[in-house]
User: What shape does this take?
Amino acid sequence: MQKETGMAGWQITVTTQTPEEWNRNHDRDTILATWTTGASGIRPFEELLKTGDTVLLRSDGYPRIYSANARHILPAVRAVPDMASAAIVKAWYVTMHPSVIDTCPPDQRLTIVAWDQS
Assistant: This one.
């Protein structure tokens, strides 16, 4: 798990593109959500690593890339607006695309791209 001290946070994007597709061309129509969060903002994805429900494909933070089925990721994505509104420091920038989220089948593979904001 990423060390939290001295870290500014994460800018996270969840997309239906594969990591290879995302690296070649960021297609905005494939983005389910994007948000900025504090250092512990990747904790839900790290917890899914422990259960084997997500795979860490890259871990250096430039970016950190996960892959998982929608059934495992979408609960965390849907919770982002509530977490942002409950945050003490309202430094979150949340963009949700419900039309893309709602059309994801549970077994669709999603890519989570998390950029270290340090």
Q: What stands out?
A: Helices lie at 19-24, 43-51, 70-86, 98-102. The chain is about 30% helix and 30% strand. Strands lie at 10-15, 31-37, 54-58, 64-69, 94-96, 109-116.
